[in-house]
Design brief:
Mean pLDDT: 91
Largest sheet: 3 strands, antiparallel
Number of helices: 5
Radius of gyration: 19 Å
CATH class: Mainly Alpha
Strand order of the largest sheet: 1-3-2
CATH topology: Multidrug-efflux Transporter Regulator, Chain: A, Domain 2
Number of strands: 3
Low-confidence stretches: none
Shape: flat
């Protein structure tokens, strides 16, 4: 395994049991997220679920939303909107860097 593979947050690394232990949830909770299409873990050669760090983050956020009283549909929508907002913020930051780095992009406040 290379260092890049260790750093890859999308690498399917954790079994259902390991993921449940890390998150402090029961295994059926993770399986229910898979069934609902919220988190779709990879499958090992033997058909066992393998979760990535990214998926653990999603499952953790879903658990927190459930704890706040959200139902599955509301929690899924919130998770999707949070993802869109993060993407928009990254895009805005990249565009700002491009403007700042461009010859005509120097801001003049005078």
């Amino acid at each position: 395994m290379t260092l890049n593979e260790l750093d890859d947050e999308h690498r399917p690394t954790f079994t259902t049991g390991q993921a449940a232990d890390i998150l402090g949830v029961e295994q059926p909770f993770l399986r229910s997220l898979d069934t609902a299409g919220v988190v779709s873990p990879e499958r090992s050669g033997g058909g066992h679920r393998r979760y990535s760090r990214h998926q653990l983050g999603q499952a953790s956020r879903m658990r927190a939303l459930f704890d706040e009283g959200m139902n599955l549909n509301a929690a899924q929508r919130i998770l999707a909107l949070e993802y869109e907002l993060d993407e928009a913020r990254r895009e805005i930051a990249a565009l700002r860097r491009r403007v700042e780095d461009s010859p005509d992009g120097a801001s003049s406040d005078t």
